[in-house]
Amino acid sequence: MSRAALHKLRLPVMAAPMFLVSGPDMVIAAARSGIAGAFPTPNCRTADELDRWMEQIAQETADAPGTWAANLVTHSSNARLADDLALVAKHKPPIVITALGSPAPAINIVHHYGGIVLADVVDERLGRKAAAAGADGLVAVASGAGGHTGSLSPFAFISSLRQFFDGVICVGGAIADGAGVAGAVAAGADLVYLGTRFIAAEESLADPAYKQMVVDARAADLVVSAAITGTPASWLKASLASAGYDPDDLGKPATRDYGGDPAKKWRDLWAAGQGLHAVSEIAPLARIVDELETGWTAACRRLAAFGDKNDT
Q1: Which helix (H) or strand (E) holds 169?
Q2: How does pLDDT run across 134-155, given as a tens digit for each residue?
Q3: Alpha-carbon distance 253 to 170, whole Å?
Q4: CATH for 3-207+273-311?
């Protein structure tokens, strides 16, 4: 997988890896629709389950026009990291995304079979550290992202990373339509994370009530807090309230601990980003991609029109 290969995607979009949302059906549908699909390995409760997921995805995307990625938690509390890395070496996902820790543990393994490593970063300091560690790309997790989120504007973040990094930049945060994708690429991104837009996809693993909550909600229905996982994350207030939390008083940041069974700990706490307004129905992922392409094409025409005007 190379940067040039990414540029051959139908759209420069990745269906972002989402906790308890992204599974084989979503990843496969994304790749078959010509974009990239990704899932976080903690969505599998055991290494055996992860083995099955990766085997299925690798087989069913072999001839797809898009591609796929596995997202690893590299924080020291993840006791299963070594097992996950062994399965990465076995199944060779074209893209590996590291989160909540250094990309270093994955780099040699992924480079050995020709894949690329993208590292989640939430600020320029972490971006410089990931680049120095050898990451092929940086995922700029910006303000407005669902789940674990950043605090920088997507546009400011892309610009600051481009000052020192010429590798792949993927950006996510409040981007939910084709026009937003075009704007991010115009600003210097190679790839754009879309998460919230795909939560209500038919292929999503999300609970039906979660999907409907995303359809019904808007950005005002979110709260950002580190009280749940120890890292700032964007949560749907209604899901917190249903689980017994007070969304207006979530308390101090929790201790970071990504070991054990995250699915059991946070199963009923539902995340989303500021792109909620773009989700109007539960729909097949392929239709969502079609809608993104329509918006992308219109936005590219608007940009081209400015170029034509300057030529006259």
Answers
A1: strand 168-172
A2: 999 999 999 999 988 989 999 9
A3: 28
A4: 3.20.20.70
